[in-house]
Amino acid sequence: TDGAQLPILVIGSGYGGAVAALRLAQAGQSVAIVEMGMSWSQPAPDGKIFCNMLSPDGRSYWLRTQTAQPVSYFLGAAFDKTIPKYTGVLDAEQFSQIRVYQGRGVGGGSLVNGGMAVTPQQQYFPSILPSVDPAEMYATYYPRANAGLKVNNIDQAWFETADCYQFARVGRETAQASGFNTPFVPNVYDFNYMKQEDITTPGFGSIGGGSAVPRSALNSEVIYGNNYGKQSLDKTYLAAAVATGKVSITPQHVVTKVTPAAGTGYAVTMNQIDTSGNTIATKTVTAQKVFFAAGSVGTSKLLVTQKATGALPNLPTSIGTGWGNNGNVMVARANQPALPTGSLQSCIPVMGIDNWSSVGGRAFAEISPFPTGIETFASLYLAITENPNRGTFSYNSSTGGVDLNWQQAWNQVSIDAASRIFDPINVKQGTIYRTDLFGFFKTWGDDFAYHPLGGCVLNQSTDNYGRLQSYPGLYVIDGSLIPGCTTVNPFVTITALAERNIENIIANDMK
Ligand code: FDA
Question: What's the burial of 471, exposed, middle or buried (CB within 10 Å: 0-12/13-18/19+)?
Fold first, then answer.
């Protein structure tokens, strides 16, 4: 409520915010979380909380009137469709040369992501976060994060026979034929639930000829939310935080301003919005401590704006720098007719192709589902690559918005690295790239990112634990701390770093 006096305010309810709220509450602190997106807890009139990828409606996108699907073409024709403007769960935020996808709602990115929970190999950790002790991370904070996130592994015997993973087996077979390693990757999706979605699983399914439980991963649900099966943050960290009785979560409030309060602490201004995005109230609260957990883009935008408008003028000049896209590029191959990928595909990826040791161009590619409901013979991949280019956020005084100077051409390094995996596979298989999925005769999906990282880099814009040192009581605790790349999918690293930092902050700043 307007005028409230709070000990601790957390801005954003993704990984960083959820870890901060739980650990602070367990240490006896009262915590208020504000989140710009909705609380995705009530079913719509169709009985479902979320819509699926085959029939997107207003619930799919954040305040858009047309979908912005990552794979938005088929046979070269655009198939985005008109939707009602609504505070949907997936934001496709357009900067001048890159579209950055982000989750909106209580749970942040965990609501829309593929759940791939990958701990990077320890030998590469110094390149990810050079100022952080790897021994501590791998002994304590990665295990803590994996436990808190409820990470689990697929039953490999089931994987070998399940129809819904034929696409992954084909991805594996074609990669291994060219000599690549194809590790299984853990996930937060409950694999026991998924087994029951599959009517071919012995002992499961076949209630009335259908699956034993309502389908989610097997019903083309993922980037617009999963109705069942996915252990997103609202079911793990945030549920545990609320269960302490010390944490409140207020959705549909967009923070716009943070500035020192007249007495002690910080005045935080926010707009309460309706489901069309209109402001229905503006409120200011005072908090003694504020955690920025609005994600790489959200936190960077907020801090760059506060510095430029004089609300927090003493923030360091490095604020807004060091942004990267985790080297994300997408590509698809057309398989031979003898290698169909299946008309039923689980939306939860469970396997990758690891070429990170290739110094010529490091890449880790997730074997992604392409759940169209029909046989496409296509193999789709999201590659994570080593890309040294870094973008900078800057305040635009004429629009009042924040720009990002990332250039699409900078992705050529990533395309080259991914090509070192897929060119040899195509040669060996006698196959070609699909050129009809990302445009008309366009091979690479190189104009969007799923994994924004950086903008407020650890040990540069903050101290080595996320403190904004020129403003005691202000902290950053999300993906903006990580300088541009994690070598694999990022949320386990974001969570583990937040676990490390909050432990230090609780021990030293909360006495
Ligand atoms: P995160 O973005 O999770 O949370 C920030 C929250 O703050 C959001 O809920 C946002 O609405 C809110 N917020 C922002 N500005 C605000 C403001 N001004 N006021 C109030 N609230 C505000 N990663 C991975 O490891 N494995 C995977 O399989 C995938 N797959 C994947 C698929 C897709 C489609 C996407 C979009 C992303 C992924 N990711 C992923 C990436 C992963 O989801 C991402 O790295 C994390 O969610 C980032 O966590 P953070 O805590 O940094 O921010």
Answer: middle
Instruction: Name the packing angle between helices 15-26 and 491-509 (round to 10°).
Output: 30
Mind listing the pLDDT tens digit for each residue in 212-262? 899 999 999 999 999 999 999 999 999 999 999 999 999 999 999 999 999
Q: Which helix (H) or strand (E) holds 334?
A: strand 329-334
Query: What's the rounded Cα separation, in Å, for the pair 304 and 324?
Result: 16
* Amino acid, res. 467: R
Query: How many CA atoms are closer than 13 Å to the CA of 379, on its beta-carbon side?
Result: 32
- Which atom of ligand 1 is least distant from the CA of 452? 45
Pocket test of ligand 1: the residue of 89, 113, 252 to mutate, having most ligand atoms within 8 Å of its CB, is 113
Residue tagged 């040294």 (tokens)? 388
Which two three-digit tokens encode residue 497?
């770093």
Number of neighbours of residue 24 by Cβ within 10 angstroms: 25
Of 27, 32, 469, nearest to 287 (Cα)? 32
Ligand 1 atom index nearest CA of 70: 34
Distances 412 to 263, 310, 328, 438 between C-alpha atoms, Å? 51, 38, 11, 16
Atom of ligand 1 nearest to the CA of 37: 11
- Among all residues, which ones are annotated catalytic? 366, 451
CA 149 to ligand 1 center in whole angstroms:
14
Q: Classify domain 1-50+89-150+230-326+450-511 at the CATH topology level.
A: FAD/NAD(P)-binding domain (3.50.50)
Round to whole Å and give the CA distance between 55 and 49.
14
> What's the ipTM?
1.00
Give the tens place of pLDDT for each residue, 445-460.
Answer: 999 999 999 999 999 9
Q: Where are the domains of the chain?
A: 1-50+89-150+230-326+450-511
State how far the Cα of 215 lies from the Cα of 165, in Å rounded to an integer: 15
Of 103, 106, 87, 93, whose CA–CA distance to 44 is shortest? Answer: 87
Residue 190 Cα, ligand 1 centroid: separation in angstroms?
20
Q: How many residues does the chain have?
A: 511
